[in-house]
Amino acid sequence: MARVLTPRAEDFPRWYQDLIAKAKLADNGPVRGTMVIRPAGYAIWERMQAEMDNRIKAAGAENAYFPLFIPEGHLKREAEHVEGFSPELAVVTHGGGKQLAEPVVVRPTSETVIGEFMAKWVDSYRDLPLLLNQWANVVRWELRPRIFLRTSEFLWQEGHTAHTTREDARAYARRILHEAYEDLMVNVLAIPVQVGLKTARERFAGATATYTLEGMMGDGKALQLGTSHELGQNFGRAFDISYTSAEGGREYAWTTSWGTSTRMLGGLIMCHGDDDGLRVPPKLAPVQAYVMVVKDGEGVGEAAARLHDALRDAGVRVALDDRTDTPFGRRAVDAELRGYPVRVEIGPRDLAAGNAVVVRRTDGSKSPVPVADVVGVVRAALDADQQALHDQALARRQARTREVGTLAEAIEAAATGWARVPWSVVGAKGEAEANAEGVTVRCLIRADGSVPDSEDEPDLVAVLSRAY
């Protein structure tokens, strides 16, 4: 396999690019910074999307769709927001062969356009909370693109809500953070995320608080996998999202926004991938079991088809590979690269012995199993390997996280992993010093690991690392 992928220990970024190409997950698009997501990659994104959509709807939000183009003036109405995005904006100045009267921005995010319609739709406290989500593409002009991690156009969901009180807005931003995002990432993607509060320096433009979910990748760096923001009344005032209260007064709404994107695909690759390719957690995998005919033989194809149907009927997402005109070794390598959790291989000799061979992608084990027992063995393997991937990632994070007492020690530790250091010894000045060394404060947490409400709380812990 070393001839297929660059070893991770030798060159992690090259390994990442090799895997994406060899597993046929994505390609670079024709415009620099864009990407084409191939069917194998898009199938994983569809599973992420479906799982996330179910959780968002369970939290009460409804899906809608808003325009791709936003009048430039809309962004300027919230000065801090446009300032935060100015370097990344793609601006359209001509359309239909003519110069536009007002330039339009290709959405980098939709707070401003959704804010306009919230103002239109909200009149009374009875209209609140208004809980909206959209699945869309956004454009943020990226100077240093990397497929899935940083591209000029990417796919995501963005939620936007309006509430009568700050407390209700905060509770909802936290609900999405934990019940939708953390639950998906930990229990489906098998990525043990550190949930915390961003510092003022790292906060989303126009937000009053930004909550984040940080995962440790295979090389010890951090990746921000999702964020949820309290926006205070900033957008309520800028777009006149106001309502008549129960007491008859006119009040501005408190709003939130929150998003996850195809960056989760990059995180999945870098957290779980190995030198043989991708390893997809079974709960996420579009194909959980891959039934393979090793070579032609009397009754082999029929036996493989029966195994396929039995697994399907047992609720396993299964595919059948009976392409015996393609060498088995090549097909097996492709299956390894794509990270199918379990392979069920059957050939003439296996069938003669009444067996099939069950191969588990997580640990590489191969076991002959009586055909009658295959379904039970596969289901047990899927459950065990879902947990195993999470546990391996958690063990790596624990092994590569150092408790330190000074900023200098934190910067040193960030060369190979994460550092936990008292926020009181870092502060805004120390954060700037760390940034100059390529190290960022990924988040702030309380001593008990919970998420603080403010960076001004006493005894907070800062998590520092290098990041993607």
TrEMBL record:
Instruction: Cite the source lineage.
Output: Bacteria, Bacillati, Actinomycetota, Actinomycetes, Micromonosporales
EC number(s) in its UniProt entry?
6.1.1.15
Q: What is its main location?
A: cytoplasm
Q: Name one GO molecular function term.
A: proline-tRNA ligase activity
Where, subcellularly, is it found?
Answer: Cytoplasm
Keyword Cytoplasm: yes or no?
A: yes
* A cellular component annotation (GO) from this entry: aminoacyl-tRNA synthetase multienzyme complex
Give the Aminoacyl-transfer RNA synthetases class-II family profile domain ranges: 32-281
Q: Which reaction does it catalyse?
A: tRNA(Pro) + L-proline + ATP = L-prolyl-tRNA(Pro) + AMP + diphosphate
Quote the PANTHER family the UniProt record gives. Answer: PROLINE--TRNA LIGASE, CHLOROPLASTIC_MITOCHONDRIAL, PROLYL-TRNA SYNTHETASE
Per UniProt, the keywords (alphabetical) are: Aminoacyl-tRNA synthetase, ATP-binding, Cytoplasm, Ligase, Nucleotide-binding, Protein biosynthesis
**What is the top-level taxon of the source organism?**
Bacteria
The task this protein performs is described as: Catalyzes the attachment of proline to tRNA(Pro) in a two-step reaction: proline is first activated by ATP to form Pro-AMP and then transferred to the acceptor end of tRNA(Pro).
Return the SUPFAM superfamilies for the record.
Answer: Class II aaRS ABD-related, Class II aaRS and biotin synthetases
Name of the protein in question: Proline--tRNA ligase
Free-text comment on this protein's domains from its UniProt entry: Consists of three domains: the N-terminal catalytic domain, the anticodon-binding domain and the C-terminal extension.
- Quaternary structure note: Homodimer.
* Entry-linked PROSITE patterns: AA_TRNA_LIGASE_II
Q: Which ranges does the record mark as transmembrane?
A: none
* Protein family per UniProt: Belongs to the class-II aminoacyl-tRNA synthetase family. ProS type 3 subfamily.
One Pfam family of this protein, by short name?
HGTP_anticodon
UniProt cross-references to InterPro entries, sorted A to Z? aa-tRNA-synt_IIb (IPR002314), aa-tRNA-synth_II (IPR006195), aa-tRNA-synth_II/BPL/LPL (IPR045864), Anticodon-bd (IPR004154), Anticodon-bd_dom_sf (IPR036621), Pro-tRNA-ligase_IIa (IPR002316), Pro-tRNA-ligase_IIa_arc-type (IPR004499), Pro-tRNA_ligase_II_C (IPR016061)
Give me any GO biological process, just one.
prolyl-tRNA aminoacylation
